[in-house]
């Protein structure tokens, strides 16, 4: 028989919410296990047991927003460091994209408790996701990520067909094997990368391995969500009907 595991962990495994949200919903009495309310943190369940969120929990999740930012280079995706501004400081009313079609009216509560769902290097620009929704964060940060990420990469050096061919192979660097990227040449000094997984400095290291030096990276797309006409330094809400 399977061993019992923490209810909050099981809720996260099922994709119901994040671990932080699970603890919140349990404490509020908004979680049922086999039809019975469970409101004690640390409670354990078996994998076969049925777990449900009550309507109030679902309503709270629906109120939480996800924001898409066109991050300029020089802003940190994570918490700020001395002399470096964090990207979340750009999320304010005056930088809201005027042509936001989400239908969501900005409220004060939309600007707090935003977490970056994924990394974008300090020197890189482009699409960055910040969210209050633990489900979105979990999906974009999962180890078995199944969303494509598309990048525009400017390089110094002459790009050859052989280099592009090498970049499309599976690589093992420092004991880590990376899934093959889809790489194509866009112009004399520009490449297009499509990755299904990403590690810090991955694009730089792959380019260096074939003799190219990266001078600029811009993320254009995550899954089905792209920058489109979102100006640099501005943000918009992820619409209710949009999915990564």
Descriptive overview:
- This protein is an alpha+beta fold and 244 residues long.
- It has 6 helices and 16 strands.
- The strands form 4 sheets. Strands 6, 7, 8, 9, 12, 13, 14, 15 and 16 form a 9-stranded mixed β-sheet that branches. A 3-stranded antiparallel β-sheet has the order 3-2-5.
- A hairpin with a 2-residue loop joins strand 12 and strand 13.
- Helix 1 packs across helix 2.
- The radius of gyration is 21 Å and the shape is globular.
The major pleated sheet works out as: 9 strands, mixed
Q: Would you identify the regions where 5 or more consecutive residues have pLDDT less than 50?
A: none
Number of helices: 6
* Total beta-strand segments: 16
Q: Into which percent range does the helicity of residues fall?
A: 10-25%
The helix/strand order is EHHEEEEHEEEHEHEEEEHEEE
Oligomeric status: single chain
Query: What class would the helix/strand composition place it in?
Result: alpha+beta
Proportion of strand residues: 25-35%
CA gyration radius, whole angstroms: 21 Å
How far the N terminus sits from the C terminus, by CA atoms, comes to: 37 Å
List the helices and strands and how they pair.
Layout: E1 5-6, H1 7-13, H2 19-28, E2 31-33, E3 36-37, E4 44-45, E5 51-53, H3 55-63, E6 66-71, E7 115-116, E8 125-131, H4 134-141, E9 149-156, H5 161-167, E10 171-173, E11 176-178, E12 182-187, E13 190-195, H6 202-209, E14 213-222, E15 225-226, E16 235-237
Parallel strand pairs: 8-14
Antiparallel strand pairs: 1-4, 2-3, 2-5, 6-8, 6-16, 7-8, 9-13, 9-14, 10-11, 12-13, 14-15
Helix pairs in contact: 1-2
